[in-house]
Amino acid sequence: MTNRKLVVGITQGDSNGIGYEVIIKALADERILESFTPVVYGSSKLYGFYRKSIHDITPPETRVINSAADAHPKCINIVNCLPENIYAEPGQSTPESAKSAITSLETAMKDLKKGSIDVLVTAPINKRAMVAEGFGYAGHTEYLQREFGCDDVVMIMVSDQLKIGIVTGHIPLRDVPGSLTTEAILGKLRIMKRSMERDFGISNPKIAVLGLNPHCGDGGLLGDEEQSIILPAVQKAVEEGIQAFGPYSPDGFFGMGHYSRFDATLAMYHDQGLAPFKAMAFTEGVNFTAGMPVVRTSPDHGTAYDMAGRDEADPRSMMQSIFTAIDIYRSRQHYDELHGKN
Description:
Blueprint: E1 6-11, H1 19-26, E2 36-42, H2 44-52, E3 62-65, E4 76-80, H3 95-114, E5 119-122, H4 127-132, H5 140-147, E6 154-158, E7 163-166, H6 176-179, H7 182-198, E8 206-210, H8 225-239, E9 243-248, H9 250-255, E10 264-267, H10 270-281, E11 286-290, E12 295-299, H11 316-338
Parallel strand pairs: 1-2, 1-5, 2-4, 3-4, 5-12, 7-10, 8-9, 8-10
Antiparallel strand pairs: 6-7, 6-11, 11-12
Helix pairs in contact: 7-8
């Protein structure tokens, strides 16, 4: 396994949010360049604008490049992919900031597909604004899934304490029950098992599965999805050799700390998993897309318009996203070598 320094692609996200601030702060220590080569997709003009609003740091030198293939290992490399007349309006959701997020992502995707960057880290976006500007996806996860032709992926929130996958993702809450099927849950469990083993080095992981209804339906009084859909998925997973357990009632599962007994947890819908995750790990949480041939992570927070341009944003989630992406890439290399894969 080669120990070469990896090239990390970083998209700017929404140009009026805290993306640039957390990127600049995360890359502020020159020693960071000993670990990887950063390539930021966006605008040197915007980078300079936000750099001036941040105090008490001296980030490494920046260099403008045409593509990641030209990246310099001793600099913060910036691929200028936005119009020269771009300007920042911190704290505002504008068509221009949404378009810049789309362009940044699409440019980085080209380099990722070519292998010019090893991993991708995406700064926060405004999904609604991007959709209004023609972005046909509910978020990064759905976009990446389509770009790489993956039948299924799992959004996994990662921290030292927790790894929580989501079955239904970015859909309205009213659509969740109708979207849950035994096969859908089983598919997510297969991806999670594979990811825990290959991406995180956890052999034969134990995965907890949460219920949907209060008190797991209370024997059918409050709903029957646990018995008719979720439990059969757990049973089929066990038959396939997956160490799946449940379903568990989420309130007691998190309230009593039962999550600590498992290597990962599968939630039925977005907030069921993300609410407890962010309560416990908001400052260092990472969003990871499992089930893809490439490694993509992002911070677990949004654009935070109310903080934009004020030097108030915490960069730890961005830093963790970068290093988690590198760790997963290395783990995959190690796993594939052990199992005789190229």
